[in-house]
Structures are given as structure tokens and as C-alpha cells.
Specification:
alpha+beta, six-stranded mixed beta sheet, 33% strand, disordered C terminus
């Protein structure tokens, strides 16, 4: 999700035909986010937040409106910045239905298999996930030995029959794009 794209790179140069591309580039090196959703899913930008690197996009999959919240949380966020982004995400999740929270959250010490955290910031995010009944579905490292890129939802994915989320490697082995296509898939997501 951290794209490192800049405004000089046109969407046409990304090679994502038949996708609607939503992105927030940084004017400086690093950061930036992008979500690409198949055009036939009629995606609509709901919000592009300027304080936090967040995009909210809605798509229609088999007449069901699904909301994707894409986030990039830089490493080294202060405790107050971390609290602000967690509160913002909490507000969005409570305003929307049928959500997928996606992104590079840079919480390298959260152990998703036993729901433990090593820092107060990670504990706050883990508490946010628990209090909103969010399940995390990426179970392989996305950078070095860490799971930094996450897919979270409160849906029971074993009942979801119409969504496929691809984590496609771009530029290096640790920068990901989220490409959304509607089609039946098994419930387990992997990178």
C-alpha cells in the first residue's frame, strides 16, 4: 500500500486497464496509497482524508455495497498521531457497513496468532480491532519477518462468496497494491 508514487506518474502508466484507480500521493519521497477496483464494480470515492493517509472507496459487488478503507500508517508515528488515526478509523468503521480495512499499518510486533502487542501503540490498535470484532486475514510476513500489510473485516469470510482481494507485488517485495475484483473465492486469504 505504500506506493511511493508521485503526481508525475500518470495512472495510465500503471498498467491497470479496466480498473478505477484511487490514490493519494505524497509530494515528498515515501508514503502514498493506491487502491484499484475493477470498473464493473462501480467504485466511488467516499473520502480522501488529508490528515491521515486514508482512502475510503465503495464498490458494488452482486448488488452489495462494500466499503474499502485503505490506510498507510508510517513507522515511528507518535503516540498522539497513532491515537488520532485509530480514532479516525473507529469513527469510519462505525459509520459504514460491510467494510474491509486494508493497509500498511507498520505494527511489526503485533502477534496476530495470539493477539499480543509489544508497544502501547500496537496495543491500542489491537484493542481497536478487538472492540470492533475485526479479524485479520494476512498470515504470512509482508516485509522481512513482519506482517505489516493487513486485511481486516468483521464479516464472516466463510460466507462471503463474491470478493477476491489480490495483494500484488510492485517495485520491491514489500510494496503492495490492493486490486479488487468481484468473483467467488474460498474464505482463506493469503499473500
Amino acid at each position: 500500500t505504500e506506493t511511493w508514487l508521485n503526481p508525475q506518474l500518470n495512472n495510465a502508466n500503471l498498467g491497470l486497464s479496466n480498473f478505477c484507480i484511487f490514490r493519494r500521493d505524497r509530494p515528498t519521497r515515501g508514503g502514498g496509497i493506491l487502491i484499484a477496483i475493477k470498473a464493473n464494480l462501480n467504485p466511488v470515492l467516499i473520502e480522501s482524508n488529508h490528515m491521515h493517509e486514508v482512502l475510503v472507496v465503495r464498490a458494488t459487488i452482486d448488488s452489495l455495497r462494500v466499503n474499502f478503507i485503505l490506510t498507510y500508517r508510517p513507522p515511528g508515528y507518535s503516540a498522539s498521531d497513532n491515537q488520532a488515526v485509530v480514532e479516525f478509523l473507529d469513527q469510519k468503521i462505525n459509520q459504514l457497513d460491510n467494510i474491509y480495512l486494508l493497509g500498511d499499518f507498520n505494527y511489526p510486533h503485533i502477534n496476530w496468532s495470539n493477539s499480543t502487542a509489544s508497544t502501547p501503540e500496537e496495543a491500542a490498535f489491537l484493542n481497536f480491532c478487538t472492540s470492533n470484532s475485526l479479524s485479520q486475514f494476512v498470515n504470512e510476513p509482508t516485509r522481512d519477518e513482519n506482517i505489516l500489510d493487513l486485511v481486516l473485516t468483521f464479516w464472516n469470510l466463510s460466507r462471503l462468496m463474491c470478493l477476491k482481494i489480490f495483494l500484488t507485488v510492485t517495485i520491491t517485495s514489500w510494496r503492495f497494491l490492493y486490486l479488487i475484483e468481484g468473483r467467488p473465492v474460498p474464505p482463506k486469504l493469503s499473500t
